[in-house]
Amino acid sequence: MQLKAYTHASVYVCVCARTVRGCAQICQQEGLVPIVEPEVTLGPGDYSIEETAFWSERVYSHVFRLLNEYDIMLDGILLKPNM
Length: 83
Hints:
Blueprint (H helix, E strand, L loop, with lengths): L8 H21 L5 E2 L12 H21 L8 E2 L4
Parallel strand pairs: 1-2
Helix pairs in contact: 1-2
């Protein structure tokens, strides 16, 4: 997700987290192992490691909060972290 392209980044983070949660939920209901990839892309620019870490932490915390709320079996997912 490109966060700099949106003025309401917090809303976008929540919407994307719900999408990732929904995909994981459907996969587990069908007996598949979901690949959870909360990708964070800040877009073109010169970003510090601190800013990148801030947005990554924010996205990951929203995704995992929703995964927990909807009883997604965390030991039954494959996490693909951002690079």
